[in-house]
Amino acid sequence: MRNRILFTLVGAGLAAGFVSAYVYGQQPRPQPPVHTPASNPFTRGVYANGIIESFQEHGQNTNIYPEVTGVVTQILVREGQHVKKGDIVLVLDDTVQRATAAQLAAQAKAARTTAQELRAQPRKETLAVAQAQVEQGQAALTTAQATYDKLQRSYTLDPRSVSKQALDDAANAVAQARANLDVARRQYDLTRAGAWIYDIRTQEQQAEALAKAAAASEALLGKYTLRAPRDGIIMTINTAVGSYASPQGVYNTYTQLYDPVVTMGDAGALAVRCYVDEILVPRLPDPSKMTATMFVRGTDIRVPLQFSRVQPYVTPKIELSNERTEKVDLRVLPVIFQFTPPAGIVLYPGQLVDVYLADVTAAHQPVTARPPRSTR
User: How do the pLDDT tens digits run along the chain, 376 residues long?
Assistant: First the structure.
């Protein structure tokens, strides 16, 4: 009886082992992919990484930096907002510069007033005073001369009636009165002539210099208000009220680099900047015959691209980590394509995409089913 139970247990274990081996040996059917991986649609397509950006005839996005330093006091736009050229984007603290501009403007105004005063000379009241001084000098000379004549006649009749000292004093008084009259007349002529032309010119030049200084200060004051340099859309605002901004931009505590205060893009068509590996550059077709297809990562969306231009300068691909001090051996040639987003599809600048470039004559040729070789 005991042996029968043992044999029964052994048989049950063997059966369970065979069943387990069969069950666990079955391969589960793979789940279908969420999207079809990007594949080369051309016979001889060249793969490249691409970054979506706003399309512009020249350059990339518009990075706005302040020309002066200061603390941000107002931000008058928001990310995604459409703006017109000249719209105020943000304002920096201009308290000190505003006072300086007002001071220089007041100095320039005072200098212009002084120049006008010199031009308006002689003033009739001043000329009247000079005329009165001449008359006073004439009267003093007449009195002194009369006194001297009386003493002289008395001395002629009787030398003992007038001392020699008194006669000499009277003669000196006449000479002094005559000199004072001459000074008064010359002062009258000087007053009537008005300001010296060289004094006027000097004052006018000083007024002009101060006016230019005031204009420069006023222009510098305008730099504290950042305005949109063109029509477009606000893509990023990298600062906040109370933050410090300088011509270098604003400090990013995450990347430990300086970013532009505001980044603007075009509100219309988008572009793709493709980075072609330098070893694939010789395989690129002629720019006049170049076409491309863009694959949006994570989707089955493919978008035809229209060739725009080649940036004819091979550079290190610092976009890998945005570290300019990074030693990167990979060098790439930027090729820019333009496209219009398909209806119902939302794409954003800065989005990474896969791009295949080829000769336009190969766009409709059959493709050999072969997975692309990534050059990233």
Answer: 666 776 677 677 777 777 777 767 777 777 776 667 777 888 888 999 899 988 877 767 889 999 999 999 999 999 989 999 999 999 999 999 999 999 999 999 999 999 999 999 998 899 999 999 999 999 999 999 999 999 888 888 888 888 888 888 999 999 999 999 999 999 999 989 989 999 999 999 999 999 999 999 999 999 999 999 988 889 899 999 999 999 999 988 887 888 999 998 877 778 999 999 999 999 988 888 888 999 988 888 889 999 999 988 888 876 555 555 555 567 899 999 999 888 888 888 888 999 999 987 755 544 433 444 444 3
Q: Are 60 and 315 in contact (CB under 8 A)?
A: no
Q: Side chain identity at 207, as an amino acid letter?
A: A
Q: What sign for the dihedral angle of Cα 153, 155, 158, 160?
A: positive
* 3-class state of residue 323 by DSSP: coil
Query: pTM of the predicted model, to two decimals?
Result: 0.66
Please count the other Cβ atoms lying within 10 Å of the Cβ belonging to residue 173.
17
Each domain of the chain, given as residue ranges in start order, spans 46-55+268-362, 62-93+225-262, 102-218
- Which CATH superfamily is 46-55+268-362 part of? Efflux pump adaptor protein, beta barrel domain (2.40.30.170)
